[in-house]
Structure formats: structure tokens, C-alpha cells
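Risk mitigation, structural track. In case the binding assays with F0G fail to produce interpretable data, a predicted complex structure has been prepared as a fallback.
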Amino acid sequence: MPAIKFYSRDPLPMEMHKVKIVQKLNLLPAKERLAKMKEAGFNTFLLHNGDIFMDMLTDSGVNAMSDNMQSAMLRADDAYAGSETFYRMQDKLEEIFGIPYLLPTHQGRACEHILATHFVKPGNCVIMNYHFTTSKAHVTRLGGHVEELVKDEGLISKSNLPFKGNIDMDKVKACVEKEGADNIAYMRLEAGTNLIGGQPISYENMKEATEYAKANGIVTILDASLLQDNLYFIKTREESMKDKSIREITRMIADLFDIIYFSARKFGFGRGGGILVRDEKMFHEMEDYITMFEGFLTYGGMSVKEMEALIIGFEETMDLDVISQGPQFIDHCVRALDAHGIPMITPGGGLGAHIDARAVVSHIPAEQYPAGSLVAALYLCGGIRGMERGTLSEERNPDGSERIASVEMVRLAFPRRVFTLSQTEYVIDRVKWLYDHRDLIGGLRFVHEPKSLRFFTGRLEPVSDWPEKLVAAYEAEFGEDQ
Ligand code: F0G
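Fallback model:
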């Protein structure tokens, strides 16, 4: 539970589990890391995991399972159609969310594919508090456009606002007026808003937004992929909710929405996804997409073993001890880096610690990808793999110019129940060193640039020999073997 008390020191975030299976890590020397980074086109997505010491790329599909999740896998009922596992999963989700119909998918973006295909027509608008890369790509692919109506404060990196993911109701009303409610395919609210730093949305705000949408006949969808962190923040930051259990809060949120979807690579600590649909007719209208794109209706592309593990994972998500740990480790990391003067996204959110790259490497022009450069430098200086979340993750404007991201961040994800506090301290130490040597970091330019979702597979090169100089400085500090 939040903050165990200590006798002789200030509280530390505490692992509320013990380690039963381990994986050995490699720390390559800095020069070897430089060679690997060149091979990977200065794109951390293209590194091999064996060459990484701290993999903080994402919390997606890399969370540690519990003993109960692993043992549940043995129960899996293998059947193409009618697997008992599916019915157990459906029952668990209905118990938690109170929504009866489940469309299983292989992961979160498959849910987005199906929802966008079903609801979005050319020219339609989709309202969001903020976009996620794949959720936006599916809308634009179909000729729709996304309106991101998060409150302005959500985009200010340093703040003490508890719910920076909140949608701005004045902007929502103006948008509905401008577009006309009929042209709005749906309103998608994202719990634990990923691209602005894992920042939560309050229950009150979800309530106000969904009530307004309903009054205007607009379908309401919750992206619950990062709901677990958001639940923790509602419980600990929203005064009116502090006496409610996680289960009660979850149910209150669920009651607000027509549809809830999730990536089970995050929500449930496994791998998979699902769309929960309240309305029977709507559910049947989308069924065909599952059989066409995912698999049969009782597995949707997931392995039944994973589904059994997820059933336990969903239940563990209702345990405050379990869901506290990620936000507490992140908070510890963010506070330590902030205290060193490093521009961080504050307050710490869920998912990971987020560095305001635009402020750290302000000498790198926006078109040379400040966050992309910083994240490449961090791998060179410590074997830490983070993720660029900024201009490089955007798609170009139709005229070919760069769409400069409103938020330019490096994300250091904290996969759940994976890293220890000493590993977290190592990361804090290397980020501090890099910050103190930030003048050595230079920009990047594309040598291979895919048209869509270019951050996944694009290849870049440094604009000068800055990586060599940075590695030389690092070796001078730590020696050649680190
Ligand atoms: N929605 C949110 C809020 C997400 O964070 C993600 C994935 C998805 C949808 C798509 O789910 O990956 O299972 O297809 N986020 C990952 C990340 C990729 O690293 O943040 P998916």
C-alpha cells in the first residue's frame, strides 16, 4: 500500500512482491553501444534487447506476471470455438466493469482498428482528450480527423495539477457546435493519457464529458489501457473518491461509457486486448470484424494461456498494493531528477518518468528531433533504452513540412513489477550525468523515413560526430568497460 513507514529514514517506494524468476542483464561497454546504435539507425525501437541494460522503452507486454497468473495458464481451454477460457474472461470483465459483451482482440490497436472502421466516415471528427499514435492513425486512415481537447494546463510540462489529462469542456462544446454532433464519430477519453506523460483524468471530468456527449447523442469510448495508474491517482488525488475502493471507482467510471477498450499488454499485465460493448446491437454490428481481422469470437487472436493469465491480472488490478507500485517508483524517479534541476514532466504520472527534452537540449532545432537525440544519447550513456515521444512520433503535414509536436519528451517507462529500486537509482544517476553533459548532444536526420508511424522503423543518422564525443566523455568519467 502507499508508503510503508520507516523507523530511520524517509519512506521509499516498496516492492510489494518477491522475485521468483530472474533474467540476466548485459551491460555492454559504451563503444559497443555506439556500434549497436549505429546499426539501429539511432532509433531505439531497432535495438536488440540483448544489447540493452535497462529496457524502459515501454510497459507494453513486458510487465512481470505473478505466480497466480502463471499457474492459471495451465487451466487454459484450447478450442477454436467456445473455449471455456473465453467465458471465464468475459465473466471477470463483466464482474469488474458491468458491461456484458466482449470482443476479444490481439492487442489495443486492433480494438482501435475495429472501432474506427465501424464508426469513422470520411470527414468525421473524433474528440479526444489527447491522441495516442495508433488511435489517431486509424482515424486519419479512414479520412477522419482528431480534435485534441485536453485542457491547456495539460501541456505545460512543470505543474502541480493532479489531473493533467482532463478534457476542456469549453473546447468540447465549441467543437460540437462547429462540427455538429452528427459529424462526431465518437468521443474517446484516454485514461492515464500516454503522450502527455501518463497523466490521469479525474472521475468528475469523465462524468461531465460523457454526460455532455450523451446529451448530444455522441458515442462515448474509454481507452482503458492505462486505467490501472489512473485508478491509483483517482484514489489518492481526488478528494471525493478517497474512501471508495478501487473496485468501486472502476465500476463508477465504467458506468459512464458506452464502450471500453484496452490493450491487455498494459491493462492486466499480459498480452492481448478487448472491446467491451454495452449495447447488444452495436456488439453484433462489430462481431464480423473480429472474425475477419482477429480470430474466432472466443479468442480474437490471443493465446488462451495469456487469456487465463489476464483473468487473474484483471483481478490483481483491483488491488491497491499492486497498482500503487508503478506510480510510486515513477514519483521517486521524477522527484530525484527534478531536484537535480532536470526539466521533468511533473507531477509524475503513470507509465513512466518523462523528461522534457525540448528544455533539456534546447540547442537542438525541432526539425532535428530533440527527444530522438536525447533518447539515443541515453542508450550510449548507460545502456538505458527509453522512447522518443515528440516530433519524430508525429506524421508530417500534408505539404511535407514537419508537424512539430506540442510536447517533446523522452519517456522512461517502468514496466510493472520488473525493476528494483537500485536499478531505478542507476537510471537516475546516468540521467543526471547526461544532463550535466547535455551540450555534447547533437541532432539527428532521417536516412529512411516511412510515411506512416515512422518512429517505429525509420532510420536516422547524427548531424555531426557528436555520438563519438559523448562516448569519449562518458568513458573518461566511468571507464571503458561501462
Ligand atoms: N492506447 C494506449 C493509451 C496505449 O498506450 C497503447 C499502446 C495503445 C492504445 C495500443 O495498444 O500496443 O496493444 O496495440 N501503447 C504502447 C506504449 C505501445 O508503448 O505506450 P497496443
